[in-house]
């Protein structure tokens, strides 16, 4: 295959400085780390690219202070696999780098003609999981299973983090509280903001301020106003009260942000209008100050008006506010929801051509073979998890990993956001209280089955013997 001209691909602008970076679904196959492609080229050169490989995506350890994770991101992972293709322009761009000069034509033909043809096993989105449990397994020709690693980790790691934080926020705030996702301006990227909004809603939040995310998900976006509107209209039209009136001319009864100047003075003026019947008001928002004291004072003035608060809130702060008796009906969650301790998911080879393999690096040991998570319950609560081999029988246990893609085709329908949200709530409710608490949570015990233990020892011995032989 000869090198194609750059034409419609990114390299047509390579002479420009400070080139803008854009991303579309057509680019996803190249949204990977270089070593995925170099390994695929090596596999092809060695003639093993079509060998059947199994990779499992697991989390080595839970983020500090977390007792569980809520699996999320599978929907976007499967969308990616369904569209996994390399265009001629993308191949030309790769060839132009010169990195693959020794790769043969068979490698380029593989990319040009290839698509994802493997199987995928995964825990349903919204399921509580723990360390060293596979959230997902890809079984496919080696080159395919290798190349998809980066994108799968990107979407599942990030969405799992956001969904878990959202589930914790809902658990602490309670079902009656309104929880709004306000994190778009703090998310790590425009794409990340869409994933964060989706994961937050699936994890238990009520709505998002991200208009694009809300509309794409069939939801109604939520929000109030910023201090800029109050300051601009107050300066031009005279007073904060006139600014509120102007906003209500276009959005009657909408929640108002009342802490731009004097929170209590603003609440007093609004109370006069509400009590006289002159104004309908669906809420007020506080974004600064002593939220405990202010919320109590505002409640005394506006007893029937919902009070929302925002400003770098997280589950610990909500717990503190509730414990102090703050009069708060809803919370806007932003920075601390869409950022924070990363989920360190990894994607490791566990079987190649039917041969179990494992990583034995210090602190990064993996279990060999294709595995299943077996969950047992007692009194409606999770009792224990057993990590075993795929073929083991689950007696009185629930097998969590399900076949979702077979030979490249989906075998289960797309789930609604509400279905995933309900599963998240049920998953969290099924966990022991010691696993759900914020301070020093204790994860559910994960047992290793006898079959997996034996396979692990056999794999270690086989690997050690092979190492001795090569010396």
Automatic annotation (TrEMBL):
Domain of life of the source = Bacteria
Q: Which reaction does it catalyse?
A: 5-phospho-alpha-D-ribose 1-diphosphate + nicotinate + ATP + H2O = nicotinate beta-D-ribonucleotide + ADP + phosphate + diphosphate
A single GO BP: NAD+ biosynthetic process via the salvage pathway
What sequence ranges are listed for the domain Nicotinate phosphoribosyltransferase N-terminal?
30-157
Record note on modification: Transiently phosphorylated on a His residue during the reaction cycle. Phosphorylation strongly increases the affinity for substrates and increases the rate of nicotinate D-ribonucleotide production. Dephosphorylation regenerates the low-affinity form of the enzyme, leading to product release.
**Domain Nicotinate phosphoribosyltransferase C-terminal, residue spans:** 398-453
**Keyword Thylakoid in annotation:** no
Q: Which GO terms describe its cellular component?
A: cytosol
Q: Which residues belong to any copy of the Nicotinate/nicotinamide phosphoribosyltransferase domain?
A: 179-296
| Keywords attached to this entry | Glycosyltransferase, Ligase, Phosphoprotein, Pyridine nucleotide biosynthesis, Transferase
DNA repair recorded as keyword: no
Which is one GO molecular function term here?
A: nicotinate phosphoribosyltransferase activity
* UniProt pathway annotation: Cofactor biosynthesis; NAD(+) biosynthesis; nicotinate D-ribonucleotide from nicotinate: step 1/1
EC number annotated for this UniProt entry: 6.3.4.21
Q: What role does this protein play?
A: Catalyzes the first step in the biosynthesis of NAD from nicotinic acid, the ATP-dependent synthesis of beta-nicotinate D-ribonucleotide from nicotinate and 5-phospho-D-ribose 1-phosphate.
Annotated family: Belongs to the NAPRTase family.
The protein here is known as: Nicotinate phosphoribosyltransferase
Q: Source species, please?
A: Nostoc sphaeroides CCNUC1
């Amino acid at each position: 295959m000869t090198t194609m001209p750059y034409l419609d691909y990114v390299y047509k602008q390579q002479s420009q400085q400070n080139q803008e970076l854009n991303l579309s679904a057509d680019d996803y196959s190249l949204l990977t780390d270089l070593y995925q492609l170099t390994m695929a080229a090596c596999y092809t050169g060695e003639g093993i690219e079509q060998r059947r490989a199994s990779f499992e995506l697991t989390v080595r350890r839970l983020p500090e202070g977390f007792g569980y994770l809520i699996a999320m991101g599978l929907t976007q992972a499967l969308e990616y696999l369904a569209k996994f293709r390399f265009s001629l322009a993308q191949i030309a761009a790769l060839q132009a780098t010169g990195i693959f000069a020794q790769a043969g034509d068979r490698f380029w033909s593989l990319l040009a003609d290839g698509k994802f043809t493997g199987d995928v096993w995964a825990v349903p989105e919204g399921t509580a999981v723990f360390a060293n449990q596979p959230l997902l397994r890809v079984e496919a020709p080696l080159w395919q299973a290798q190349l998809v690693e980066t994108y799968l980790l990107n979407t599942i790691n990030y969405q799992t983090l956001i969904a878990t934080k959202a589930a914790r926020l809902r658990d602490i705030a309670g079902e009656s509280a309104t929880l709004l996702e306000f994190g778009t301006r703090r998310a790590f990227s425009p794409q990340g903001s869409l994933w964060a909004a989706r994961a937050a809603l699936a994890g238990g939040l009520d709505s998002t301020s991200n208009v694009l995310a809300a509309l794409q998900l069939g939801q109604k976006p939520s929000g109030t106003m910023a201090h800029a509107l109050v300051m601009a209209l107050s300066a031009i039209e005279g007073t904060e009260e006139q600014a509120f009136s102007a906003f209500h001319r276009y959005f009657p009864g909408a929640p108002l942000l009342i802490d731009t100047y004097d929170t209590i003075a603003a609440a007093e003026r609004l109370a006069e209008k509400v009590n006289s019947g002159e104004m309908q008001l669906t809420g007020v928002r506080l974004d600064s100050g002593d939220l405990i004291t202010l919320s109590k004072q505002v409640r005394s003035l506006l007893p029937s008006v919902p009070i929302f608060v925002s400003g770098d809130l997280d589950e610990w702060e909500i717990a503190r506010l509730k414990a102090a008796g703050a009069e708060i009906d809803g919370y806007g969650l932003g920075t601390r929801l869409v950022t924070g301790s990363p989920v360190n998911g990894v994607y490791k080879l566990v079987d190649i051509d039917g041969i179990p393999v494992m990583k034995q690096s210090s602190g990064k040991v993996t279990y060999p073979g294709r595995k299943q998570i077996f969950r047992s319950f007692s009194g409606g609560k999770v009792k224990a998890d057993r990590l075993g081999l795929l073929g083991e029988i689950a007696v009185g246990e629930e097998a969590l990993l399900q076949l979702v893609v077979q030979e490249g085709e989906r075998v289960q329908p797309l789930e609604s956001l509400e279905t995933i949200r309900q599963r998240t709530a049920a998953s969290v409710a099924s966990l022991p209280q010691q696993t759900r608490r914020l301070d020093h949570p204790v994860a559910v015990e994960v047992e290793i089955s006898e079959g997996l233990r034996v396979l692990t020892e056999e794999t270690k011995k086989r690997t050690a013997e092979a190492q001795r032989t090569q010396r």
